[in-house]
Design goal:
0% strand
């Protein structure tokens, strides 16, 4: 990405006309579009792996249809983070429902054993 911004700076250097400046910047931006999307995909890889491991199917409206590989839109990224958070919270809740009563039972039995010994 640093190279892209350097290329933009070089393209607009010395240009005094605002329209020409915007045009050259858009041209460089367009030329870098495939690389930016690929970089987004690489950055989203871990998110996609977590979705797959949790068995969450990504709805089509959350995917960018302009590329061949699964790239999430910004709204899709927000959706994915919230879904992964929900799954994590459900797992924590499940284990808390098992562990806390078990610990409570162990403490109660231990207290009862000590009470009987006295």
């Amino acid at each position: 990405m640093k190279q892209m911004f350097e290329e933009i700076d070089a393209a607009i250097k010395g240009v005094t006309d605002l329209h020409e400046c915007v045009s050259r910047e858009a041209e460089v931006w367009e030329r870098w579009e495939p690389r930016r999307k690929l970089m987004d995909f690489v950055q989203q890889h871990e998110l996609n792996v977590q979705l797959q491991l949790n068995g969450i199917a990504t709805p089509p409206e959350c995917l960018d249809s302009s590329v061949q590989y699964p790239l999430l839109t910004p709204a899709g990224e927000n959706w994915a983070h919230s879904e992964i958070r929900k799954v994590r919270d459900e797992r924590i809740e499940f284990w808390m429902r098992i562990i806390l009563p078990t610990i409570s039972l162990i403490v109660s039995i231990t207290a009862l054993v000590f009470a009987v010994r006295r």
